[in-house]
Amino acid sequence: MAERYPRLDPGTTFREHLEDGERIFRIYVPCVEGMFKLPPRNWELAQLFDGKRSYADVAEVYSQQTGIHYDEEQVRDFAADLEGVQFWYKTAQEKNNLLMQQSADERKKLAQVKSRWADLSLVSFPAFNPDRFLTWLYGKTKFVFTWWFTLVTVLGFGVTFGIFISHWSEVGRDTIEFYNFSNKTWGDILLLYAVSMVVVAFHETGHAYACKHYGAHVRSMGFALVYLMPAFYTDTTEGVVMATRWQRFVIALAGIWAELIACSVATPIWWGTPPDTAVHDAAYYMMMQTGIMSLVLNWNPLIKLDGYHMLCETLGIADLKENSTAYVSGWVKRHIWRLPVEVPYVPKRRRLGFAVYALLSGAYSYTVLYVVARFAGNVVRNFSPEWGFVPEIGVALLIFRGRIRSLVNFMKFVYLDKREHILGWFTARRTTAMIVGAMVVVLVPMRRESVTGKFILEPARIAMVRATVPGAVSQVFVREGESVAADAPLATLQNLSLESDREAAKTQAVLAAKQAESATIHYQDVGLALKQKEQLAVRSEQLGLRAAELQIDSPMAGTVLTARVKDRTGSYLDEGEELLEIGDLTALRARIYVSEYDLWKVGRRQAAKLQIRGVARVWRAEVASIASNPVEMDPSLHAQADLKGMNPPHYYPVNLVVVNAEGVLRPGMTGVARLYGDRRSLLGLSWESVRSFFGRKIW
Ligand SMILES: [Zn+2]
Q1: CA–centroid distance, residue 211 to ligand 1 (Å)
Q2: From the CA of 306, how far away is ligand 1's center (Å)?
Q3: What pLDDT, in 10s, does the model give residues 291-333?
Q4: Looking at the whole model, is its pTM more than 0.70?
């Protein structure tokens, strides 16, 4: 069988670029939808492969053209290298043959590498070829790239911006409301996805359209999941090959530009239509999707979206993320782990920037992944709070699978490299010391159990002072915050009828006494007169006592808690109506709510610390009482944002008492209390959590 010689894909496009001051050819190979970079010499050589020339022929032609001698063997090696990266043209038939030739093992490896789900930060699905559609669209709407249209567009952006600023209170609040999923039904979320699909499709068409304008083909557009969020993507590789730096910047910008156009159309419609109409709402929906959040997402240069590409083009650094990550990870391996690896060469002036970028973007990616995992957990927690951790850990493992694998590989590498070192270090004495150390760490009770909770301070003892007889307040002797002794007068009431009754009863009693006296002298109805005298005396005394109650005294020593008591002067109090509150502030009570899961850590007379908000001091307190029944928690003390449908644990009120010797603490102050339990060892702690886990989940 005749040997088949490599050839270029007939659809290959290329262009010369300057990268870091060096000439380089970017070559787009359609059959693999990939971009390759070759130095000019190599590209000249590669171009000689047409499938008909043998290696010897290519060597000869190349030597003639360039005057540099190349032999058949060198050419063959060169072709093999390019074959290794799938540079050469393959028909569909050839691709199939190649797959069949590879052993099952290799195929499996290939499949694994290409597994769609290997890296969940970007999962792409098969695409379609939009080139004909784009050619047609471009033919009809070329005017988009004229200066006058751009001017109109920029004016539109200005108007939109103005409306956003002048209606900021509405727009800003609603944006947060819109993206806060807690008040959304599944229907809302579905609609949100549908609208965002339309917006994203429009955005991607923007990129593709710009590619088309600069003469590059767009061979595939498709659907992908970016951090598991649905997204469209556009293969603009040929644009990257064919376009100049400025043109590439425009291609990257075009997506956001398209969205801003959509936003500029929607905003005036929203502004000009009456609220609560379908058009108004639809326009608002569009604004939310294309406005602020789109900018925030797409212009973030830390993830590989448009903002990143624009940053790369602006700096003139290709593959910023890959290169900076490779540099930082190489540097860490070499200088911190002291492994025998090469740190990729990076010019001095770029090193700091690379380090900063790699760290920021790494931290950002992990944060996003963490948030996604948290979100999955929260969704499940809505239905079953106990099992929310399963999807959380599941999603985290799924997402981090690749990273965990490379971490394991890295650890193996470190181990193999350092084995001698490590084994040498483990002498008998050191090993014993290590074991003793480990046991101390595990068994010695070091960590104290603790429970925390928010509280509002209340007086430990409180008395409500009420009118015991009805009357109008004639005088108030105290004001808020004033401290009073026990039995000190607080106020006087006036009750004219009571007072006149008392006066009348007094007079009657005196009269009756006189009558009784005269009756005794004259022996007339002595029994009746004595009885009347007695009755009237009792009545007079009773009325006297009631009249004395018109002066209200303090039932205990304490502080007046009621605001603006003096304002009560002149008002009328019924019997039993409240006048003011006296509280004993020498000790205050802080009530915290402890969940049923933590209640075992709390005991009577247990020590606690109080941190009052805004005061840089810690007060010591002690547990005074623990309620035996759970209660509805005071809504102002809710620690977490409430999730709908979640059944929260039961909370038991625990009262702490803090001595307020200097009188600094006041009722109504808020803060956080921390209750300290026993010290526990690591072993004890883990045993307790295992025990409570099984106790909760299984039994
Ligand atoms: Zn984009």
Answers
A1: 12
A2: 5
A3: 777 777 777 888 777 888 888 888 878 788 888 888 888 888 8
A4: no
Same fold, 13-114 and 450-454+582-697: no
CA distances in angstroms from 697 to 177, 384, 449, 651, 692, listed in the order given = 35, 11, 22, 19, 8
Task: Label residue 570 exposed, middle or buried (CB < 10 Å: 0-12, 13-18, 19+).
Answer: exposed
CA 64 / ligand 1 centre spacing (Å): 46
- Ligand 1 mean position, distance from CA 119 (Å): 20
Give strand pairing partners of 13.
Answer: 28
Structure confidence at residue 641 as a pLDDT band (50, 70, 90): very low
CA 357 to centroid of ligand 1, rounded, Å: 21
Residue 259 Cα to ligand 1 middle (Å): 10
Tokens of 607: 């020590």
* Domain ranges within the chain, ordered by starting residue: 13-114, 122-316, 336-421, 450-454+582-697, 462-573
Distance 213 CA to ligand 1 centre (A): 16
For residues 163 and 416, what is the distance between their CA atoms, to the nearest angstrom? 63
Each residue's pLDDT tens digit, 489-502: 999 988 888 888 88
Kindly report the CATH number that applies to the domain delimited by 450-454+582-697: 2.40.30.170
pLDDT at 448 over 80: no
Compute, in angstroms, the gap from residue 250 CA to the centroid of ligand 1. 11
pLDDT confidence tier of residue 234, bands split at 50, 70 and 90: confident
Whole-number Å distance, alpha carbon 218 to ligand 1 midpoint, is: 14
Three-state SS for 397-424 is: HHHHHHHHHHHHHHHHHHHHHHHHHHHH
What mean pLDDT value characterizes the chain?
A: 80
Backbone φ and ψ for 152, nearest 5 degrees, come out as -60, -45
pLDDT for 633 = 65
Q: Rounded to the nearest whole angstrom, what is the distance from the C-alpha of residue 302 to the centroid of ligand 1?
A: 14
The full DSSP string for 260-277 is HHHHHHHHHHHHHSPTTS
pLDDT digits (tens, 9 = 90+) for 170-221: 777 776 666 655 555 676 667 777 777 888 888 888 988 998 898 888 888 8
193 Cα–ligand 1 center, Å = 17
Sequence-distant (6+) residues with CB within 8 A of 10 are 89
Rounded to the nearest whole angstrom, what is the distance from the C-alpha of residue 298 to the centroid of ligand 1? Answer: 7
Positive or negative torsion for Cα 542, 547, 550, 552: negative
Q: Does domain 13-114 have CATH number 1.10.10?
A: yes
> How many angstroms is it from 170 CA to the middle of ligand 1?
28
The alpha carbon of 349 and the centre of ligand 1 are apart by a number of angstroms equal to 30
DSSP state of 33: T
Ligand 1 center to 221 CA (angstroms): 12
Per-residue pLDDT tens over the stretch 112-149? 444 555 565 667 677 788 888 889 989 888 888 889 99
Distance 254 CA to ligand 1 centre (A): 7
If pLDDT is split at 50, 70 and 90, which confidence band does 606 have?
Answer: confident
Could you report the per-residue pLDDT of 548-584, keeping only the tens digit for each?
A: 888 889 988 888 888 888 888 888 888 888 888 898 8
